[in-house]
Amino acid sequence: MFGLALALQFGCNVLVNRPIQYEDARESAPLEVPSDLMVPVANPALQIPAVAGAAGTTDTAPPALGGGVAVARGNLPRATNSVLTLSDEPDSSWKRAGIALERGGCCTILSKDAARRTYGVQFNAAGPKPGFFKRMFGASAPDPSMTVQVTAAGEGTEISVLDSAGAVRTDDSAMTVLGVLEARLR
Questions:
Q1: Domain limits of the chain?
Q2: How far is CA 158 from CA 65, 71, 81, 107, 148, in A?
Q3: What are the pLDDT digits (tens) for 3-43?
């Protein structure tokens, strides 16, 4: 009985002698995007780190931060920083931000205040449905209304999204509004 079990265990390996193909695999060049298509944004968090001592024929360095904008829900861009910095005059940035908010499609402008350089906006895109425990124990969704503020900073301006108390918001809705501004103003 033991001999039969031993023969069944190792019999297949003796009869079939296949080489292990992945041992000789080499890194291939990345796919090239045709010139009439847009190159997708590479997320640095998803890059595979280079192995020390491995000889590669392709560039394995991760992309530089700030070159692309991550994508949030509804295929709207999502900012990576809570403050957007522009090298422009505050009044000009405030007008350009208003045009970007109107054309961006992510929110509705509720109010404008040129003296304080603020826009009261309401986020349009519906968020994901809260899970069972969030619905059960009363975790509420973030307020869709927020304030976009343009302030002078050095020789440029900073644009941030504030809540009703005046604190900088960093939730998904606020970062999406800031991402739309970043994509349209740069």
A1: 70-185
A2: 19, 22, 11, 20, 10
A3: 777 667 666 565 666 666 766 777 777 778 777 777 666 67
DSSP E strand stretches across 7-101: 70-71, 77-78, 83-86
User: Looking at residue 105, what is its pLDDT?
Assistant: 83
Distances (CA, A) of 117 to 110, 147, 150: 14, 10, 5
The rounded distance, in Å, linking the Cα atoms of 98 and 117 is 10
Q: Which of 47, 76, 83, 88 has the alpha carbon at shortest distance from 64?
A: 47
The per-residue pLDDT for range 96-147, each reduced to its tens digit, is 999 999 988 888 999 999 999 999 999 886 656 667 777 777 766 667 789 9
CA–CA separation, 99 and 156 (whole Å) = 19
The fold for domain 70-185 equals TATA-Binding Protein (3.30.310)
Structure tokens at 73: 């829900």
